[in-house]
Amino acid sequence: MAGQRSSAIPLAWAYALLIVYASLYPFGPWRWPAGHALVDFMALPWPRWRDRFDEVANFLGYLPLGVLLFGGAVRSGRRAWQAALLALLLPAALSYGMEVTQTFLATRVPSLRDWVANAGGAAVGVALAALAHRLGLDVAWQRLRQRWFVQQSAGAIALLLLWPVGLLFPQPVPLGVGQFGDELRQFAIQALVDTPWETLADEWLAPSAGPDLPLTPLHESAAIALGLLGPCLVVFAVTARGWRRLVLVAGAVALAFGATTLSTALNFGPDHALAWLTPVSLPALASGLALALLCSLAGRRLAAALGLMALTGLVALVAQAPSDPYFAASLQAWEQGRFIRFHGLARWIGWLWPYVAMAWLLSRIAARDADPA
Description:
This protein is mainly alpha-helical. Helix content is 66%, strand content 0%. It is built from 14 helices and no strands.
């Protein structure tokens, strides 16, 4: 298994970014505690109070990172003891860096107790991953992966695992990931405040004064269908034609249905979990399924090209979708941390997933080993 790419590596990067986001949110206000030198912040304090929930959350929050780092290191060719050492030291260093940085955030409190819980969670994750390695479970997974996917499939597997996480954040239309134009525009306007370009930014980047028109039923249906078709074409780019593609399409439909239903339940309550199944969304899902089944006959390179076109169309459609009052209310609930504390992961994945997937598909189209089979 030496020297092989593992989907655990990009997943570990994504999870580490989640930890950074959750540790430093809301990224301000920053301050320098008076009367202290930089070296004074290096020794983390041990708080007198205890919060059982925070302790458990800190412990469990770092456990998956230990698993992913150990698995990725072993799959990359390192010995088990080297992988274990790496998977122990990196989370501990990351946690220490986050705790020290929290000293400069007025809304956060650094804690040696939190660092112990983080490092302990990562250590348990390493122990579980090492046990799985000892039992040969990683070898069994590798054999299964070789039967279902081509060799260069780590990026696609990571994208497919992250896709339902992105769907948990409320979208303007079901499966309509990739809309972050308003946030990007506001960021650009704020970045140009008190600069010579502030007036131009207000003129060019300010939202339109006219009313936001909703998507037509046809455009909404197209967005939903492409939202299901895109991930299917990503998986087709790393699988051979045959019955396995049909099973993976069924899995994509199940993930789309489950993640969207869970998102609706989190935002509007369990009684409204299936409210997203409208007279528009149901036929659109059926259309996306039919297109996915048709495209399952395509070769891998053609599937990558079709996926690039499908995701481009999806991004273009959701960029035109307005934020209706219900969508805005659900966004506010997520911003306030009402349902899920680590909402930042789902938000960023929902925003960036189609763009990362398009970049990956471009790499597959250009790859020498991407034969048309």
